[in-house]
Amino acid sequence: MSESTSTQGVVHADPAARKALMSDVDRTPGAAKPDSILVVDNITRQFGGMTAVDVDHLEVQRGVITALIGPNGAGKTTFFNLITGFDRPTSAKTGAAWSFDGAKLDKTSASSVAKAGMVRTFQLTKALSRMTVIDNMMLGAQNQAGENLFKSVFKPLWGRQEKEIEAKAEELLARFKLLEKRDDYAGSLSGGQRKLLEMARALMSDPKMIMLDEPMAGVNPALTQSLLGHIQSLRDEGMTVLFVEHDMHVVRHISDWVAVMAEGRLVAEGPADSVMSDAAVIDAYLGAHHDTDLGDDALLSDEKMEEIAEEVAAEAAEREEA
Ligand SMILES: Nc1ncnc2c1ncn2[C@@H]1O[C@H](COP(=O)(O)OP(=O)(O)OP(=O)(O)O)[C@@H](O)[C@H]1O
User: Fold this and answer.
1) Which residues in 299-309 are b (16+ Cβ under 10 Å) and which e?
2) What is the ipTM of this complex?
């Protein structure tokens, strides 16, 4: 770890320092941050006539955990795909621009994005499930470049670096308590262990920012705490974390900042507590599905609860008539 990262780690391991850092940030969508590592402008993506993503401006603060939340279909995964070079914005020629740690990324490939230090986790696909845990880790060192990831499996390109890379892989496996599974097929791991492997693999390329898409999905409660601990310790060491998550209890528990998308747009930003009581956020979730647990029912006012009850009754009546 570099000296600057470890110095930063001291600041970011201190909850009060993090809180102070974010306390002056405007609680408005697109707010400027004290030290933005990722800056996104004018990024849109249409599928046919449907706009999946339409983000005017978003900044992600360095060294903290930011959650990107929003109801199903809000555009979160599409947004991840766009900024990591796995999809092209519709606005590519009309002003879409994003930069990471000062480097422009909008004209670069997925592998260049990863090389710049912005790495996302990948779900364990069928092909990766049929490989051993250690082989999955060795692939992580390849900067996870989409299809290249698969091509590279068959290339004997490690040479004399191989031992070094293997040692690093084993160190990470030990950190994530997967070393015993080193030679097992990745497909034999439990849901939670897969998530740990996805995270460990992403760390093989020493990213500055790690992007996690639903890190808690399919994880049993016993491993949830361990996964949360790993995410927090990455942040405490100075890494920036951006994650998409549906479980609002998890979001409340570990996020320093929350950005909310609805219907492709960024509709709110702020610390978890203030965001989850924001009317635009409650409306966005309730408009999408009534049974969403925002993590704290007390945030729903009586008036809002009555409104929901009326909407649910009206929908039930409509279904009966149909
Ligand atoms: N390749 C595609 N072709 C057509 N429509 C797409 C495609 N990818 C995404 N969409 C649509 O774009 C919208 C945004 O989808 P996206 O998966 O990004 O949302 P999300 O917020 O990640 O949702 P979830 O939380 O359910 O994963 C949805 O209406 C989805 O159906």
Assistant:
1) ebeeeeeeeee
2) 0.97
